[in-house]
Amino acid sequence: MFHVVDDNEHVRELIVELLDVAGYGGKAFSCPFEYLDYVNSDSYISPVAIITDVRMPRMNGYELIEEVREKFPNQKFVVISGYEGKDGAVRTDPCHFLSKPFNPEQLIAVADAIVRCDM
Fold this sequence. Notes:
Rossmann fold; Two-component system, NtrC family, response regulator PilR/two-component system, response regulator YesN/two-component system, NtrC family, C4-dicarboxylate transport response regulator DctD; Sig_transdc_resp-reg_receiver; 5 strands; CheY-like_superfamily; 5 helices; phosphoprotein; 5-stranded parallel β-sheet; Bact_response_regulator; globular; 45% helix; 18% strand
């Protein structure tokens, strides 16, 4: 299971659908704060990886990574962004960085690689 955090509903739902079709499953969250509420809940189930957008209102993806890693230091992340530059990626060291627009095959290849490493 992958978790997807993106403020763009269409992108978020597309990623979850692609992950579901590939057999991995996905759970969608509309913002970092919604995700952090889930992380801190009793019902939290750790994912294989968290796929997060970079630019979101009030908290960006890199800040989300730092927050989650305080509690789960080994959590894997995939960062997606439509903007040039990976400044925060260097600081937060995600497993993968996908530039928007990406095609479905690229996303599934990244998911495959993460799952293989997890085995």
